Amino acid sequence: MKNLQKALLAAIVGSVMTMSAQAAISYGAGQSYVGIKAGKFMIDVDDLDDPTAYGVYAGYNFDSNFGAEIEYVGSSDTDVDTGNSGVDAEYDLKTYGAYGTYRYAFPNTGLYAKGKLGYAKAEIDASISDDFGNFENNSGSDSGVAGGIGLGYNFNPNMSVEAEYDYVAEDLTLLTLGAHYKF
Q1: Distance between CA atoms of 10 and 123, rounded to whole angstroms?
Q2: Strand 135-154 and strand 87-105: pairing?
Q3: What one-character-per-residue DSSP string does the chain give?
Q4: Which of 8, 59, 121, 159 is 20–30 Å from 47 (CA)?
Q5: Rounded CA gap, 132 and 75, in Å?
Q6: Which residues pair with 143 in a beta bridge?
Q7: Distances from the Cα of 20 to the Cαs of 79, 107, 108, 150, 153, in angstroms?
Q8: pTM over 0.85
Q9: pLDDT tens sequence across 111-151
Q10: Residue 155 pLDDT greater than 90, yes or no
Q11: Residue 163 burial (CB < 10 Å; 0-12/13-18/19+)?
Q12: Per-residue pLDDT tens for 13-71?
């Protein structure tokens, strides 16, 4: 009976080690990926609600640590509380970015840390209307150095999830959860 228990224990330990080794597979040299993300824009401006964010991204890893990534993140129209029942206002955000990335894979796990630094452009479109049919559109943009940090997990050699916090522009940050496929 003891031999059967030892054999069963050895099989379980071997299976777990195989799963851990497979999960520890991270990005390889010359590996491309595409993904989707969703989260929240965080705007440091009074009277503006933080809109829901959604986006797509793609990247290429030159080796197991360094890569490049591009992304687009947008928002749905978000209402602005004007304090006046006869006036309606809303806005939406769009960001575009290109980044250099660095990933550190924690040994013997599928967990990794990510940092990115690059250039991003943020655009805002706002509209305001009143009960008398008056309507006005305004837009603006800001661009410059942007970056972020994140934590991710490789489920297998092709699928990963990442949580990220990004600085996009002055008064605008982004918190997202994304999933991507590597090929």
Answers
A1: 58
A2: unpaired
A3: -HHHHHHHHHHHHHHHHHHHHHHT--PPTTEEEEEEEEEEEEE-STT-PPPEEEEEEEEEESSSSEEEEEEEEEE--EEE--S-TTEEEEEEEEEEEEEEEEEEEPTTSSEEEEEEEEEEEEEEEEEEEETTS-EEEEEEEEEEEEEEEEEEEESSSSEEEEEEEEEEETTEEEEEEEEEEE-
A4: 121
A5: 28
A6: 121
A7: 46, 10, 7, 21, 12
A8: no
A9: 999 999 999 999 989 888 888 888 888 888 999 999 999 99
A10: yes
A11: middle
A12: 555 555 444 444 555 578 999 999 999 999 888 777 889 999 999 999 999 899 999 99
- According to DSSP, the residues that pair with 104 across neighbouring strands are 113
Nearest of 40, 36, 28 to residue 67 by alpha carbon = 28
The tokens for 25 are 């597979």
Output b/e per residue, 75-110; b: 16+ Cβ within 10 A: beebebeeeeeeeebebbbbbbbebebebebeeeeb
CA distance 130 to 88: 6
